[in-house]
Design goal:
Distance between the termini: 77 Å
Helix content: 25-40%
Largest sheet: 3 strands, antiparallel
Oligomer: single chain
Strand content: 15-25%
Number of helices: 12
Order of helices and strands: HEHHEEHEHEEEEHHHHHEEEEHEH
Number of domains: 3
Structural class: alpha+beta
Number of strands: 13
Radius of gyration: 24 Å
C-alpha cells in the first residue's frame, strides 16, 4: 500500500504528533518506517536532512510552554560557539517557573524566569531572544568567547559596504538583559564582556585580534571604517583600522583560493598604498598562543607611522 504524502510543513524537518494530528495525518502514517522517532511524540522524515530551526521546531511545538534556550537557541541565531561545544547537540529546553521541568531523551531541561520580550517566535521555533540567549551563554563561555558572540549579534554594516548587514540586536539590548537578571549565573562574566563588545566585527578571529591588541596596551582599532577616494567613492573596508595613522588591519583566514580570487586579492592589496595607507595582514597563526604575534606586528606598523606610547 502506498504511503500518504506528508504535508510540506511536516516533510522538511522535525514535527510533533500534535502538529501532525492538527494536519489530519493518521497515527498509522506517523508510525511508518520513513519517519524516525527521535523523542517521545517527535518524528523526523528519514530523508529530510533537517538542520537548525527545522530540526528543532518540534520540541517547542509539543506544547505552548517549551522554549529553546542556551546553546540550542544560540545555534538557531547562528552565533559562533567555541569548538568544545561543537559536539554537544543535546537540546536545551526551558519552561517558565511554575511549569513542570522538561524531561525527555537528549534534552537538557531548565526552569527559568523570562520577561515577556525575552521569548520570541523565529523561523517556526519558540526560543529566547538574541540578548537573553547571549546572557544564558555567560555561564558556559569565557569573557573572550562571550565578547565574540556579542560582536556577532550586534554587527552591522552601512550602505557604503559591499554587503550591508543589519544587527540582530544592540549593545543596549545586552546591557538591558544584564540589568534584569542581576543574580543570574554568569552575570559577572556578562558585565565584563559587554564592556568589550563592539559593532563591526565580522568574525571570531577579528574579535580576538582586537582584544589581543587592547590587552597589550595598543590603541583600540576602529571598526566599520570606510576609506573613500577623492570622488567620495568607497574603496576600502578594512576589518579594523587606525585612521589617525593610516593603517588598515586585514584578517586573512586562509580561505582564499583559485586564480581569480588571488588576482582580486592582489588588486585589493594595492588599494591602501594607492591612497596612502599601510595594510597589515593578519593570519590565523598570528593569533595563537599566550603572546600572539599580532601584537608586535601591529606595534611595528604603528611605530612606523609615528605612534608612541604617549598616544595610547
Amino acid at each position: 500500500m502506498r504511503r500518504a504524502i506528508l504535508p510540506d510543513h511536516l516533510n522538511n524537518g522535525s514535527f510533533s504528533l500534535r502538529a501532525s494530528d492538527k494536519a489530519g495525518v493518521t497515527r498509522t502514517r506517523t508510525a511508518a518506517k520513513d519517519l524516525v522517532t527521535v523523542s517521545r511524540g517527535i518524528r523526523v522524515p528519514v530523508q529530510s536532512g533537517a538542520t537548525g530551526s527545522a530540526a528543532l521546531r518540534a520540541y517547542t511545538d509539543l506544547d505552548d510552554t517549551s522554549i529553546l534556550t542556551s546553546l540550542s537557541a544560540a545555534r538557531v541565531w547562528g552565533a559562533p560557539l567555541p569548538a568544545r561545544h561543537s559536539g554537544d547537540w543535546r537540546i536545551h529546553l526551558a519552561r517558565r517557573r511554575g511549569f513542570s521541568f522538561p524531561r525527555r531523551v537528549n534534552v537538557v531541561g531548565h526552569v527559568l524566569t523570562f520577561f515577556p520580550d525575552e521569548v520570541l517566535e523565529y523561523d517556526g521555533v519558540r526560543l529566547t531572544s538574541p540578548a537573553r540567549t547571549w546572557l544564558d551563554l555567560a555561564g558556559l563561555l569565557t569573557v573572550e568567547e562571550l565578547v565574540a558572540v556579542g560582536d556577532y549579534l550586534v554587527c552591522c554594516h552601512g550602505p557604503a559596504f559591499p554587503m550591508p548587514r543589519a544587527a540582530i540586536c544592540s549593545i543596549d539590548d545586552l546591557r538591558d538583559v544584564i540589568g534584569r537578571h542581576r543574580g543570574m549565573r554568569g552575570v559577572r562574566t556578562a558585565r565584563e564582556a559587554v564592556e568589550l563588545v563592539r559593532v563591526g566585527s565580522d568574525s571570531v578571529p577579528e574579535t580576538r585580534m582586537r582584544l589581543a591588541l587592547v590587552d597589550a596596551g595598543l590603541p583600540e582599532p576602529v571598526l566599520n571604517h570606510v576609506l573613500f577616494d577623492s570622488r567620495g567613492v568607497p574603496v576600502l573596508w578594512p576589518d579594523a583600522a587606525y585612521p589617525r595613522w593610516g593603517i588598515a588591519l586585514q584578517y586573512d583566514g586562509g580561505h582564499h583560493a583559485g586564480t581569480e580570487q588571488h588576482l582580486r586579492d592582489i588588486d585589493r592589496q594595492d588599494r591602501p598604498e594607492i591612497h596612502g595607507w599601510l595594510e597589515v595582514r593578519i593570519g590565523k597563526h598570528h593569533l595563537e598562543g599566550d603572546r600572539p604575534a599580532v601584537v608586535p606586528r601591529v606595534r611595528r606598523a604603528l611605530q612606523s607611522r609615528g605612534w608612541t606610547r604617549d598616544d595610547s
